[in-house]
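pls design
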């Protein structure tokens, strides 16, 4: 089957093309080629042409990682707009739009389930929700997930995909950095495994806090991992940066990561890592 058989023939049979048909194609961020969306999703948002790993939703990540029968757990923020932030449009309106677009309460989901029979707690971030930014909701989720892991003697896994701390929550967002670090430290003191999987992109306050504290740090191929943006660093130090700087392959070569795992193999590899760490 090819794109003509899959897409053009059925549309010709149904006469005129509709406006929604433009959503049947997606442009790869890596090679910039147009891909049939159904084929792209079949490959778990990995480009079949260049292998670039696109972004998965938080729910999609959990479904791909955990066995059937997992339980979603919600930890709410104490206050949705702690500093009454206002710019061109209100922060609350921005949250409502993101909720409508993604179907999420905020930028992450927590689930309890099994990976090939091995029970664990998983937190997955969603870049589609205000850039996966970490505010009080994400901080509460990390803290709550770590407490649940300790209470039930379970390993904890995070899938990061974020631009960093959420500026609309000011210091309340920045507080989640040390708070998440303390939660992970408590987990490690209890001698429980913490696996951090960094997806594209993992940057800013998220990269500088809990995502780099794994008992083992993993990434998907060609993911951007770093604190400040490449342009900011380049202009600050006034030097040319190495080729592939901040990509997961560069980070692995320089000892920043323990493994790079393709998405299609992630579930099997995580199961192996859990067996070894336990």
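designed seq:
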């Amino acid at each position: 089957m090819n794109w003509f058989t899959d897409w053009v023939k059925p549309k010709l049979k149904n006469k005129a093309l509709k406006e929604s048909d433009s959503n049947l194609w997606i442009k790869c961020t890596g090679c910039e080629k147009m891909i049939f969306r159904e084929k792209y999703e079949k490959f778990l948002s990995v480009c079949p042409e260049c292998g670039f790993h696109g972004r998965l939703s938080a729910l999609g990540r959990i479904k791909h990682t955990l066995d059937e029968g997992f339980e979603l757990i919600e930890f709410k923020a104490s206050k949705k707009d702690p500093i009454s932030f206002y710019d061109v449009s209100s922060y609350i309106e921005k949250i409502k739009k993101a909720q409508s677009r993604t179907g999420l309460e905020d930028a992450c989901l927590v689930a309890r389930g099994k990976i090939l029979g091995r029970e664990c707690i998983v937190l997955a971030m969603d870049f589609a929700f205000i850039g996966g930014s970490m505010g009080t909701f994400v901080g509460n989720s990390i803290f709550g997930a770590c407490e649940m892991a300790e209470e039930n003697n379970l390993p904890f896994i995070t899938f990061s995909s974020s631009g960093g701390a959420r500026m609309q929550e000011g210091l309340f967002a920045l507080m989640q950095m040390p708070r998440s670090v303390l939660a992970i430290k408590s987990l490690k003191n209890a001698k429980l495994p913490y696996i951090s999987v960094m997806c594209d992109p993992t940057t800013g306050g998220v990269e500088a806090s809990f995502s780099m504290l794994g008992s083992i740090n993993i990434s998907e191929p060609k993911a951007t991992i770093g604190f400040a943006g490449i342009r900011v660093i380049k202009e600050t130090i006034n030097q040319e940066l190495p080729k592939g700087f901040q990509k997961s392959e560069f980070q692995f070569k320089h000892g920043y990561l323990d493994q790079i795992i393709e998405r299609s193999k992630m579930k099997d590899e995580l199961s192996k890592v859990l067996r070894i760490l336990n």
